[in-house]
Amino acid sequence: MALTGTFLCLFLVIHLLGNLQLLLPADRARASFNWYSHLLSGNVLIKLIEWLLFVSILAHIVYALLLTLRARKASGRGYVYDKRKASSTWNSRNMGFLGMIILLFLVLHLKDFWYRYKFGNLPLDEQGYTDLYAIVVAAYEEFWYVLLYLAGIAALGFHLLHGFSSAARTLGLYHPLYSKVVRVAGKLYTLAITAGFMIIPVYIYFNKA
Amino acid sequence: MKIHLKIWRQDERDGPGGMVSYTLDDVTEDMSFLEMLDALNGVLIGKGERVIEFDHDCREGICGQCGLMINGRAHGPLPHVTTCQLHMRSFRDGDTIYIEPFRAAAFPVLRDLKIDRSAFDRIIQSGGYIAAGTGSAPEANSILVAHDTAEAAFDAAACIGCGACVATCKNSSAALFVSAKTVHLSLLPQGKLEAPQRVNAMIAQMNAEQFGPCSNTEACEVECPQQISVLHIARMNWAFNKSRLLGRKG
Ligand code: HEM
Ligand code: FES
């Protein structure tokens, strides 16, 4: 859980950095983003990482299911009057629910961009690269689509807010000072990731021609 | 004060049970929570009814025998106190108080509010000790322990094994208890040698007892009467992961 989660966290950084090219002025964004996508899709290393990502997400979900089942079995008969939620944060108790929203979001996300880029028949740009930029912009010009994205990314944010520091604990970071450092780093990381991924669709929506 | 109570009653292990309502007059603020239950039992005896069974021993917050879910919180509304150290001044006249046993598959209810916590004993038996015969007490300064290390070991050893961590955890995980019991030994020179074997044996027993997985919600530390830090769990994970990586499972 912690290993796959941490790997996914790492991936998000790279993914965001690449996507930030979408914030360039339209012409430069198109050229740069399409060139970058082309570069990635032709790279063996990226192919490998893509597979690793799929395996990680799958393993993460399988572990999540196993953990949830074990926890359910361990809980036995619940309480008639239950106020236990006062002693922990909402997101830490609802990682499975948040994960499910992320999963739904991922299906939509992969179907609309990854699948179409790989298997769809897309137009080429002036450089002769597949024009992924055009579909991204077209998607984000829809109001409801932007809303869906914001919701998915918000779920991811709450998942990370607990997941980042939780993973460090599961792996065994017990030093009081470094634990605090990681907790703060987790918050900053979550803020950067959610803000970064949210700005892109919003920026494109408000800059549509 | 007049207090309304809703208390879990159950006749036998694995039997059916349910909440039963009682009203108790003449409760004073100075009564401890358990004295209030004693008073209620006095009334029940007077009526010829079966008394409400609950665990307790020292009634001074050190033995870990008492433990009730009070108004949906382990050991009641105050932070870091045992049920026996809770007093009726924490409640108001006319309040309704829900009282239930600590719940977990690994803690079967024996009767009413009394649970079987022998799963904790079996975890200790699996490795919560030092195997070497140590003889009688040696000269205190013959094995030097740095002050900070001794303090850290004491912090972990303060766990009284009440089970509130399990009761409050959404996963019914015993990670806080097991971590306190592994860490306090493995910090000290005598306990260090068997640390990898100990952590593996105790975690294996914890899983065999059907406690759930830890997902770091940290509810356990919030409810723990001894304020055992969740960082002990991380320390246990570290010892466990390290022993696996180095192939030293014991
Ligand atoms: C980009 C996507 C994702 C990232 C970066 C991510 C990251 C993480 C991290 C770092 C953890 C903490 C691991 C630990 O404490 O040991 C975690 C836990 C978890 N994740 Fe994810 N995750 C993602 C997607 C998902 C999905 C799609 C699901 C479910 C369908 C999911 C369900 C869970 C569950 C149930 C936990 C366990 C939480 C707990 O221990 O209470 N995650 N995730
Ligand atoms: S009765 Fe001993 S701790 Fe409460």
Automatic annotation (TrEMBL), chain A:
Keywords: Membrane, Transmembrane, Transmembrane helix. SUPFAM superfamilies: Fumarate reductase respiratory complex transmembrane subunits. The keyword Repeat does not apply. The keyword Transmembrane applies. One of its GO terms (cellular component) is membrane. The chain crosses the membrane at residues 49-69, 90-110, 143-167, 188-206. InterPro entries: Cytochrome_b-558 (IPR011138), SQR/QFR_C/D (IPR034804). Gene3D superfamilies: Fumarate reductase/succinate dehydrogenase, transmembrane subunit (1.20.1300.10). It comes from the Bacteria. CDD domains: SQR_TypeB_2_TM. This is Succinate dehydrogenase / fumarate reductase cytochrome b subunit. It comes from Taibaiella chishuiensis.
UniProtKB/TrEMBL annotation, chain B:
GO terms for molecular function: 2 iron, 2 sulfur cluster binding; electron transfer activity. PROSITE patterns: 2FE2S_FER_1 (PS00197), 4FE4S_FER_2 (PS51379). Gene3D superfamilies: 3.10.20.30, Alpha-helical ferredoxin. Its cofactor is [2Fe-2S] cluster; [3Fe-4S] cluster. One of its GO terms (biological process) is aerobic respiration. Pfam families: Fer2_3, Fer4_7. Residues 150-181 form the 4Fe-4S ferredoxin-type domain. It comes from the Bacteria. InterPro entries: 2Fe-2S_ferredoxin-like_sf, 2Fe2S_fd_BS, 4Fe4S_Fe-S-bd, Beta-grasp_dom_sf, Helical_ferredxn, SDH/FRD_Iron-Sulfur, Succ_DH/fum_Rdtase_N. NCBIfam families: PRK07570.1 (NF005746). Belongs to the succinate dehydrogenase/fumarate reductase iron-sulfur protein family. This is Succinate dehydrogenase / fumarate reductase iron-sulfur subunit. It comes from Taibaiella chishuiensis.
